[in-house]
Model the fold of this input.
Amino acid sequence: MEFMHIANSAIKGMTIWSVLDIIVVSYIFYKGYMLIKETRAVQLLKGILLIILLIPISDFLHLTMLNWILQRTITIGVLSIIIIFQPEIRRALEQLGRSAFNENHILENEAEYEKIINEIVNSVGNLSEQKTGALIIIEQKTGLEDIISTGTKIDAIVSAALLENIFVVNTPLHDGATIIRNGRIAAAGCFLPLTSNNDLNKKLGTRHRAGIGISENSDGLVIIVSEETGNISLAINGKLTRDYSKEKLKAILMRIIRIRYSRKTALKEKVKRWRKAGKNK
Done:
């Protein structure tokens, strides 16, 4: 009855701002869960929830020592959570910082981008046939200047011939990653962070782990060619999909580009309508 009285009082005192507050908090919790879904952080979160659940139970059963230990664990755990969830927190802040109006590293012309994708796909197809390892990153909203600085800056037009030449075995730049920014080859021979995901297939080599690692820390499109099998893989947002043909790779890249351009166009149209409505007032 007491619970029903509290619930009834809360409902009567609700305003539109209370509803908005609940929706915003729910959305934040949802996005937080989606961020750590299928990662090791989920298991840690389950452990924390179990401790929180045991505190009132231990208090109700008068388990004084257990209750004292659990409460101290939660107190110390606040700092521990920040340390343990550091990769997830960093990724969340990076996603928040990706503004729809901040696309300095992305070409404005979709047709021009299609030409560049054709050059990339043709080079990847040839490298695959030759079983020459390759790692190419197409930069998106997240800037990769820190990664570019680890390699050799090139600033050249994207061409299949140049990309193939970069990855020729035993040449100085073949063993690193090549970054494509704003429709140009920005740098080659770049060093990437390796993924810390221990659940990956043990057969995946350093090149694939590096590709997954940079896709976990940015929204870049990462294309990987296996040196052992010649298989073409694509890593996006920490997820690796394998066994692409030239046609399939081009189709998925163009689909991503078209979705991005359609969203960008829709946002620009909304801004125009808002500005027009403001002037009319």
Remarks:
- Residues 246-280 form the longest helix (35 residues).
